[in-house]
Amino acid sequence: MDTSLLDISGAADERTFTANDYKGPTARWCPGCGDFSILATTRRLLELEQLAPEKTLFVSGIGCSSRFPHYLKTYGFHGIHGRALPLALGAKLRRPDLHVFVVMGDGDCTSIGAGHWIHAIRYNPNMTVLLLDNNIYGLTKKQTSPTTPVNYKTNTQPKGSYLNPLHPISVTLGVANASFVAQTADWIPAHLLATMRAAQQHKGLSFIRILQRCPKWTIDIFDAKVKTPDEMMILNHANGITDPKVQKMYKNQMEHDPSDLDAARALTGMTSHIPLGLFYKNEDAAIYNELRMNKSFTTEEKMANLEKEFDRYAV
Amino acid sequence: MSSSQSASSEDAQEVYEKVITGLGDKTYTDHSCEVVSDAGEGAQKCGQGFGALSAKMGNGAWTVEIIPAEIEPPPRTPGSTSGVGIRIGQDKITNAGDAVKLVIAFNEQVLLSRHRVNAMSDDCIILIDSKWRTHVNPKVVGEWEDAMKEMSTKNYKWILVPLEAETLKVVDNPKLGKNMFALGLLCHIYDRDVQIAKDQVAYTFRKKPPAVTEANHKLLEAGIAWAAENLDFRFLVPARPPTSELLVMNGNEAFGMGALAAGIDVCAMYPITPASSVSHYLADVYDNFGGMVHQAEDEIAAIGVALGSSYTGKTAMTITSGPGLALKGEFIGLALMIEMPLIIIDVQRGGPSTGLPTKVEQSDLLCVLYGQPGDGPKIVMAPSSIEECFHCIITARQIAETLRTCVFILSDANLATGQTPFERPKLDAKWMAGPPKQTSVPEGSRPYEWNLDTGISERFIPGQRGGEHTVTGLNHDESSRVNYEPATNQLGHAMRSRKIAVFAETLNAPIPYGGDEGDLLIVGWGSTRGAIEEAVDRARAKGLKASSLHLTFLSPLQPGIKEACDKFTKVMTVELNYSDASDDPHITPTNRRRGQLATLLRAQLLIDCGSWGKVHGAPLQPAVLLGIIEKYIPKA
Ligand SMILES: Cc1ncc(C[n+]2csc(CCOP(=O)(O)OP(=O)(O)O)c2C)c(N)n1
Ligand code: SF4
Question: What ipTM describes this predicted complex?
Fold first, then answer.
């Protein structure tokens, strides 16, 4: 492993960080946007995990949600639409010391970036991936997204969207090598935080679909959900994500063993309720960036090895 | 029996008698030949082996691969032609040369494909497997006869060789043996050192069991013996013992080694001909250098991974060809906007679209220069030789890191698969410089603290305390904050552009080859340099005042180009990309679409240059260019 970038300043790190240490410029989302809550919860997470800001990297695509890195005081890479995952993989491949987070919208991840999404799940690099799913294209003003409910009127499909939405959890669970798949909601900060903590501590790619309120375009979809907590089904298990506060708050609870892939897939078909919690976890899934770490060499060794290469091609 | 047989009219019996060409042994300064077979019959191994062993003897050499676009197309069809052209010389050889003077063909159909592209000289000697002429299947015989008829327009000299019959005396499967028998023929004809040839064969089959090498040694010897017995001519191209240590490889291997020498950590790619073999080479050896080839899910992801790696302080490159370049456009814009060092190698092939995947073209120049939306100042360089393929990556890394920008390297299918010897590089530890230090960022410094005079700034890398910021493709200020102010947008553009101008000041003016004034100056770039300069030499030997100017940098342009052009009566670009000819139907000076360098020189330097461009999917032949020069320069 190349350790040349691991040495930060020599001295042991005796700093402690508060949520404020991660605070960037004022966020510019619409009032009431669910992204605010996710941002605040993220800062809490960084504080709880005491992640050094200079070692923390948020990568995003393009969309309202993808402005996320700008509003944190960590390193950030605000990329291009749909392509956050390759950037994040590139960052993680040779820098295992970085804590990498990816933030995407539903158009970003499940439409233009769908190819990278599938492959990132398969590569399973050690990073936390947040899908901020507001069921709509926010930044470009209310066009249909792959997760928009059927018959929902948008600017591109004014008579209502034509097709049933794809289910991000079900797609993710369909990819070989999925290792951590969870669902939560921006308006339940305790559940969101518990889920993000479990994800951050998981080794491999943790994929979290966060139901995200967009008061600007899809208020009707999410308002109903926020106001009817009984629509939620909290998934509990000793190996899952169990938060006492949430257990008290929500009426509907069920046991779900996150090692059971078939049961997890079945849950994605649940129509009576929206399951929140850990769908699936596999700690043995291969981790691409770890498989690809190889021995590092000094410049002298590399030069000697290159001379050997020259010898092979010498006349 | 006549000295040159007409294969279609002679009796099959005669081929086993000694063929009398009356040519005898003759010495040449250089000579070129081709070996062609159906795909899968190993003509490439034969030809590349011949080129390599000639280089080992001290000859100048250049090989060109002839590659079908499919893996195993139907045999005995012109489209299945696979092979190698080899030109060897007493001195250094800089290009593939003209139509070849000798061909070994495994069947008449693959030969026909070479005839149709004028690959063979009018007096070319053709050694061809005799088996098809007297084949039991009348359809095959009919095809043979038709082919002979078609080729009878040329004065080729035919020699029928019992290629398969002789091979079968040594091995059971002729498909895996004819090529080494053919190598034996070449070794006799060109008077090669048998021990060096045997070493080359052993090297070719080094990954196979020893019995394979043994059988192929026998085939090589059988070929030599058959030729000694049956042929009455040899082409002698004496080798000069090399004065310095040489390496032989193709341009893509040279890129791979250049990447190792430049300390490139990550090569992210998606398979595409003719670029992929750079990654094949690297994947084989990268573990000995701590590097990695990442085969991404697509071309977009490949550049994304390279960019992500570069952002975290690693050295990264992506390799591609036309169709992949098109997909990378949006990321290229992002890389330029955030000023991230990145090396992008485009091994050009025929376009547009899927075009001619295995053949040479120089049609990506304008796409690379202007292909991403928005203004994208960048560095574009084009190696003109396999040796430069090695060295240019080292230069590219230094430029990319100093200027915080993308450096494009434009190679092509000709350099990618051609092999030629070059001087063994003397490695320098500085080329492999480690990653930037992870020291804390001094308080108050900003991630785009542009030097207003040069546009250059220093980047912060994740891990550096106090440097936390978010890079963004949105317009941003010195602190990398999103910014929509007119002045800030103007400044960002100016800074990204200025550093390219500052870099241009460090470049030398290109020096005309041949003489710095005269009647015609040919301007070229990339892999055509050797052929252009050879044509200039021949023209000057005839008393024509022609010179050439070769451009290594296409962005920024080197200084002094206009001044050099002003000293010539006429200026003309020569490129392997499409240009309307001035006398084509409907073409006027205003609607004429010229070659890409011609367009650039006209637009940027107001040079009223002519434009010669061909898209034949073949390397430029000096003789063809000489003909053009003679047309342009009227005899006194
Ligand atoms: C290549 C490309 N195509 C289109 C766009 C325009 N665009 C910007 S954001 C966006 C979709 C935003 O929706 P989503 O990803 O769901 O994120 P949200 O804004 O809802 O958070 C689109 C289509 C773009 N920036 N780049
Ligand atoms: S449009 Fe929707 S997602 Fe975008 S900022 Fe406004 S509320 Fe949030």
Answer: 0.96
